[in-house]
């Protein structure tokens, strides 16, 4: 009787290496022997090529792919995205981030985003969150986050070289970024008479919009704002055609940017507006859009002729550039 093969579950990073080897011509049998898995498993992994690559590219922390073995995502993906952005910003400033502070911020974001259900933000939840995103606890040293500062400086030098090589002027260089706007949120503090000991509270509104701004590096072209709301046809739009609005309006159930909306904006709004501007300036029909590596940004965006395309900022340098 043959010995039963021990079950081997590969990490996402190893699975991607396996796929790369197949594409280079290595036989499935050789790969099966190298990784200690069956040929049918090799075929199954290769079938998931697109899903694995998309999942890994959307990850805020590439190093987490070394240990991660599943593509299971959080129940509250918007919450995870907000927390990761907050952690990144705080660490860029050199401020320590503790487990309890992440849990407290998670509860705050959960309420601000108006998410349904209940979040306990327990130690178990925190452990799973850290495992999902490759976050670990390290000692604090006197030096600031020099690795981030160095990465930012390195990127600046390489990007300038890239612009010169591709003959792209600042007029042809664009940048875009999103911001949340809680448009019904009232101030948390108030002026009051000395006779008032307490100010009556109010429940904070969770109504929010996402705003995308975009312009070129010279500031000569500021593209029409993108606004993302929850409703497909807000009542305030009655009698108004979408194309007549002073903004590009999209809808998403949580009023968040996602890959589908960003792709549609890039292809149907950004490219035509940029082409028109370049034509008016007698410039080559060539441009670069610089964006951060948020999960809502697709990895491969470019015009059909390949002359207008996206470049990504390295992780954790946005605040330094």
From TrEMBL:
GO terms for molecular function: DNA binding. The lineage of its organism: Eukaryota, Metazoa, Ecdysozoa, Arthropoda, Hexapoda. Its main location: nucleus. This is DNA binding HTH domain, Psq-type,Homeobox domain-like,HTH CenpB-type DNA-binding domain,DDE superfamily. Residues 67-139 form the HTH CENPB-type domain. It is found in: Nucleus. PROSITE patterns: HTH_CENPB. Belongs to the tigger transposable element derived protein family. InterPro entries: CenT-Element_Derived, DDE_SF_endonuclease_dom, Homeodomain-like_sf, HTH_CenpB_DNA-bd_dom, HTH_Psq, RNaseH_sf, WH-like_DNA-bd_sf. GO terms for cellular component: nucleus. Keywords: DNA-binding, Homeobox, Nucleus. Pfam families: CENP-B_N, DDE_1, HTH_Tnp_Tc5.
């Amino acid at each position: 009787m043959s010995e039963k093969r021990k079950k081997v579950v590969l990490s996402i990073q190893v699975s991607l290496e396996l796929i790369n080897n197949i594409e280079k011509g290595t036989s499935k049998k050789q790969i099966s022997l190298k990784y200690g898995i069956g040929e049918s498993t090799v075929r199954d992994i290769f079938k998931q090529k697109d899903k694995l690559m998309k999942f890994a590219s959307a990850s805020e922390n590439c190093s987490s792919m070394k240990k991660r073995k599943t593509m299971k995502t959080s129940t509250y993906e918007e919450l995870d995205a907000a927390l990761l952005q907050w952690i990144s910003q705080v660490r860029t400033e050199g401020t320590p981030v503790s487990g309890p502070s992440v849990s407290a911020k998670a509860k705050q974001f959960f309420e601000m985003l108006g998410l349904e259900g209940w979040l306990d933000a327990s130690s178990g939840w925190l452990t799973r969150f850290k495992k999902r995103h490759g976050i670990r606890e390290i000692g604090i040293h006197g030096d600031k986050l020099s690795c981030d500062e160095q990465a930012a400086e390195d990127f600046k030098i390489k990007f300038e070289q890239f612009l010169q090589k591709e003959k792209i002027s600042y007029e042809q260089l664009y940048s875009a970024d999103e911001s949340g706007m809680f448009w019904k949120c009232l101030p948390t503090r108030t002026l009051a008479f000395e006779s008032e000991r307490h100010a009556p509270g109010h429940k904070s509104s969770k109504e929010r919009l996402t705003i995308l701004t975009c312009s070129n590096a010279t500031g000569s072209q500021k593209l029409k704002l993108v606004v993302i709301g929850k409703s497909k046809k807000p009542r305030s739009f009655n009698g108004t055609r979408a194309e007549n609005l002073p903004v590009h309006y999209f809808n998403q159930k949580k009023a968040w940017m996602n890959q589908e909306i960003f792709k549609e904006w890039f292809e149907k709004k950004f490219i035509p507006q940029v082409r028109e501007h370049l034509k008016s300036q007698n410039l080559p029909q060539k441009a670069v859009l610089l964006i951060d590596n948020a999960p809502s940004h697709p990895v491969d965006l470019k015009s059909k002729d390949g002359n207008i395309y996206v470049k990504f900022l390295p992780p954790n340098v946005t605040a330094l550039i």
